[in-house]
Amino acid sequence: MPEKPWSGRFSEKTERIVEDFTSSIDIDKRLYAYDIDGSIAHCRTLVKGGIISEEDADVLVGGLKKIKNEIERGNFQFDHGLEDIHMHIEARLVEKVGKIAQKLHTARSRNDQVALDVRMYLRDEARGIIGSLVSLRQVILDMAKANIDVVLPGYTHLQRAQPVLLSHHLMAYYEMFSRDTERFEEGLNRINVMPLGSAALAGTTYPIDREYTAQLLEFPRVSANSIDAVSDRDFIVEFISAAGLCMVHLSRISEELIIWSSAEFGFIELPDSFATGSSIMPQKKNPDVPELVRGKTGRVFGDLVSILTMMKSLPLSYNRDMQEDKAALFNTVDVLTECIGIYIAMLPKVKIHKEAMLQATSKGFLNATDMADYLVIKGMPFRKAHDCVGNAVLYALSKNKELHELNLEELKSFSAIIEADIFDILSTDQMIARRKSIGGTATESVNAAIEAAKKRLEKEIQE
Ligand code: ARG
């Protein structure tokens, strides 16, 4: 075991339980590639500042590349005694290239190093998530297009309210995932800031060109304050918060798929390949996949609470508490990536029971509002019309009928202004077709929304 980098100041060896307790290597080894790329850029910056020679830098870079290779091939020894990925790589570099390796950590601290690594990691992950959200939106768009003729009850309070197109309902999710995409993109601007050169907290005495490091690592800007740079984890909070909201959306669509696939609704059937059976009840086909998406949402909320709590009372600047950020962040990335992937694969295979959906629109007085609107157009004030239709509903209930199943004479008993043209108004087709306002459920409005979304998505894919 190599000596600790701080051993000069210490007269006792670290207890094994302390090594285990303080070690983060099991978690942060995931950052190895970023740590190495960051170190390579740091070497080049040291050369540019005349702090190390070109030859030394070549040796260091060569060693670092070999280490990357070793880790990738699974030929790398991890040890709790070396705490974290930064110390592991540095210690291995000493083994490989000797004393020159000790020059690498000039003008740098693990505090700015870890901030750099996490930012590089997260910008890649955020871009990946944005890409998969684009695919998910594409899937939803295709589904909306393919089912433009499918009508189902729209619900409020989980009570049938008014008929809507299934495409309109699906496009509501399209909007949610579009906002999620925007949130991740906006977050990227604040992730994409280069902290190296802040050193422990106060900056460095060496003449390093931070803009040059940023350029090498493709960061559009450098951090403006060294104290903030080593202690800022806002970008992680923002990312997990955006992820939490995206999980809310996935959880809501999951809830709908679960309800819709029940015998009580019978609106959809989940693909066999995305469902599971029961170990005891042979007849069962369970919606475990959407249930697990719904269930895993809690983990991301937990990550958000955990990181907010971890940060809330920390004095400036770096504190070791902050090492705990990674478990939460990695878990969120994993859960979200997996859940979006599941939806991209599952949604196109969901079978829509068009007849059952339509059937459900014909019971439950979904046309009561349209009857009231009809009366208003014929001159009745809305409040009065509401009352009049309420009476008609009460009467229909007593006859075990729907409004459109009453005959003209019965309808006229609630208002003399009702004529035979009301039956057209009360039909599901007309209820859909007449809601032509922008953002409404009329087929032409939904088609327009799908077209607009398609254009937007194509533009995003090109950018
Ligand atoms: N493993 C540490 C972390 O993730 C790296 C920074 C350590 N800095 C320190 N001053 N002990 O936060």
Fold blueprint:
Blueprint: H1 16-22, H2 25-28, H3 32-48, H4 54-72, H5 85-97, H6 110-146, E1 151-156, E2 159-165, H7 166-191, E3 193-194, H8 210-216, E4 221-222, H9 226-231, H10 234-260, E5 268-269, H11 288-311, H12 325-346, E6 351-352, H13 354-361, H14 368-377, H15 382-399, H16 408-412, H17 422-425, H18 428-433, H19 443-462
Parallel strand pairs: 3-4
Antiparallel strand pairs: 1-2, 5-6
Helix pairs in contact: 3-4, 3-6, 3-8, 4-5, 6-7, 6-12, 6-19, 7-10, 7-19, 10-11, 10-12, 11-12, 14-15
The protein binds arginine (ARG).
Please explain how this structure is put together.
The longest helix has 37 residues. It is built from 19 helices and six strands. A hairpin with a 2-residue loop joins strand 1 and strand 2. 60% of the residues lie in helices and 5% in strands. It folds into three domains: 100 residues, Fumarase/aspartase (N-terminal domain) (Fumarase C, Chain B, domain 1, Orthogonal Bundle); 222 residues, Fumarase/aspartase (Central domain) (Fumarase C, Chain A, domain 2); 95 residues, Ribonucleotide Reductase Protein R1, domain 1. With 463 residues, the chain is mainly α. The strands form three sheets. The chain has a two-stranded antiparallel ribbon with strand order 1-2. A two-stranded parallel sheet has the order 3-4.
Would you state the CATH class of the largest domain?
Mainly Alpha
Which compounds are bound in this model? arginine
State the shape: elongated
Q: What fraction of residues sit in β-strands?
A: under 5%
Please tally the β strands and state the result: 6
Which fold name is given in CATH as the topology of the largest domain? Answer: Fumarase C, Chain A, domain 2
Order of helices and strands: HHHHHHEEHEHEHHEHHEHHHHHHH
Return the structural class.
mainly alpha
| Rg over CA atoms | 31 Å
Largest sheet: 2 strands, antiparallel
The CATH architecture of the largest domain would be: Up-down Bundle
Termini separation comes to 49 Å
Strand adjacency order, main sheet: 1-2
Flag low-confidence runs. none
Task: Please give the count of helices.
Answer: 19
Helix fraction by DSSP (H/I, runs of at least 4): 55-70%
Mean pLDDT: 96
CATH superfamily descriptor of the largest domain: Fumarase/aspartase (Central domain)
The number of domains is: 3
